[in-house]
Task: inverse folding
């Protein structure tokens, strides 16, 4: 059987993809492979995360975006192993420098949290204890996870951290309680606490949601500066596309516990290939459409207790195909190199191949 140019090109393309995957895996400080996380309730199994995979290279920023209930925060909590009592990882691997943290003992996991990986939660007011001073809470984290064991050493380190995150008069602020801080200052304290151990990975879970726009910009700028200074990798979890536009090296769009699309900010914003991503972008105000009504995504968020057999977004998609009802699409590489999980892309590629073949046949007949 003769080998055609198409076969050769296909083989070369496969080898390039495999080489790219190997490079990413070698560089990654954290690898999540086929992660499935469920919550077991009286009403049934809530499959919050369904087969999520990604690589986080050292010193890079990964954005995870999606609406409420998409599984983005549960993915972060699965990495930190701080799920509710009813939740557990039922399948997959979470590899930190090649070691599966799901196999860690409780003692080793406690060491991983804080020293290797830290998290900034959504609402700093509920994350800080109102009955203890800021200094006491910072000191506790420092003494628990670092070599600064005495009170004097921990206090000195706490003051350094507060200065690092831009809080003025840190010595006086150490003696104050959380209610004496503004929302932005409380979030700065949470960042300082997360950075106390100089972790390799920082997870920021909706870290600017409770803040006004001006303070949001300040917190994001602070995180960018600290990331460059300390060289840590960041997972930025948010529902706000505007937040991740200028900060992330790679963006993952999630819906129904699955990855819809992944790529750079330019890929996601200018060349979206999944209907959910396009819907998110249409619902964002833009200077070009100020006089037009925003177009919301139709339908209701998916019920995680009864996920559809096929594509999770199918019930809300205006362009859904019959195959979308029965089969979940695999990730497919787009012409520009980013990935999307949508049957419409498969259909488009098939139609382009047919058209190219028809044109080739017509050219031969004309000749």
Result:
């Amino acid at each position: 059987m003769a080998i055609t140019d198409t076969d050769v090109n296909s083989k070369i393309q496969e080898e390039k993809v495999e080489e790219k995957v190997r490079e990413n895996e070698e560089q990654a400080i954290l690898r999540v492979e086929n992660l499935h996380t469920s919550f077991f309730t009286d009403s049934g199994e809530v499959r919050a995360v369904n087969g999520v995979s990604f690589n986080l290279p050292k010193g890079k920023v990964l954005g995870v975006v999606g609406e409420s209930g998409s599984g983005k925060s549960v993915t972060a909590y699965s990495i930190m192993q701080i799920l509710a009592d009813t939740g557990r990882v039922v399948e997959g691997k979470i590899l930190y420098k090649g070691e599966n943290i799901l196999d860690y003992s409780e003692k080793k996991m406690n060491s991983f949290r804080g020293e290797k990986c830290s998290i900034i939660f959504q609402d700093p007011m509920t994350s800080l204890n109102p009955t203890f001073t800021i200094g006491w809470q910072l000191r506790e984290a420092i003494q628990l996870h670092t070599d600064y064991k005495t009170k004097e050493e921990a206090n000195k380190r706490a003051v350094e951290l507060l200065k690092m995150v831009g809080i003025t008069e840190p010595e006086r602020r150490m003696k104050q309680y959380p209610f004496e801080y503004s929302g932005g200052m409380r979030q700065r304290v949470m960042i300082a606490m997360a950075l106390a151990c100089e972790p390799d990975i920082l997870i920021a879970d909706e870290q600017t949601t409770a803040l006004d726009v001006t303070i949001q910009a300040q917190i994001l700028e602070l995180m960018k500066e600290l990331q460059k200074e300390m060289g840590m990798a960041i997972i930025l979890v948010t529902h706000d596309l505007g937040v991740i536009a200028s900060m992330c090296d790679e963006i993952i769009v999630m819906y129904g516990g699955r990855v819809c699309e992944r790529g750079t900010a330019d890929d996601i914003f200018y060349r979206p290939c999944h209907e959910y991503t396009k819907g998110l972008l249409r619902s964002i105000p833009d200077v070009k459409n100020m006089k037009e009504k925003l177009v919301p995504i139709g339908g209701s968020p998916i019920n995680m207790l009864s996920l559809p057999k096929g594509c999770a977004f199918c019930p809300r998609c205006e362009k859904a195909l019959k195959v979308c009802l029965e089969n979940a699409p695999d990730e497919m590489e787009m012409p520009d190199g980013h990935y999307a999980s949508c049957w419409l892309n498969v259909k488009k590629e098939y139609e382009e191949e047919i058209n190219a073949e028809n044109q080739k046949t017509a050219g031969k007949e004309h000749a």
Q: What stands out?
A: The chain is about 40% helix and 20% strand. The longest strand covers residues 28-41.
